[in-house]
Amino acid sequence: MSNPNPAATIELPEGVVANNAGLDVMTVLRNYGIDTIFGIPGTHNLEFYRHLAPLGIRPVTSRHEQGAGYGADGWAQQTGLPGVVITTSGPACSTRSPPRAPPTANPAR
After folding, report:
1. pTM score, two decimals?
2. Could you tell me where the DSSP H helices lie in 1-109?
């Protein structure tokens, strides 16, 4: 993996305040080579989604967080990059957990 450059900047429309944790997290992911994320936009994660387009990260939305987890797992297997899932708070955090079990339960992977 490449060395992350947290000082990387992106161009945003004038007047948009983007100095927040969402930009910092997405910039670090982008600097590690992540170009696709999976998940469902929601109230608690909009600051992550707000910065995807300017950073060149493609969001793949699903109807259910578990589907996003399986999508990220398949993406990781095919690309060799980490699969990233962004969920909302609450039950969404636990419903994306089942896709995490196969990599730890199947030693052939």
Report:
1. 0.71
2. 21-31, 46-49, 52-55, 65-79, 91-95, 101-105
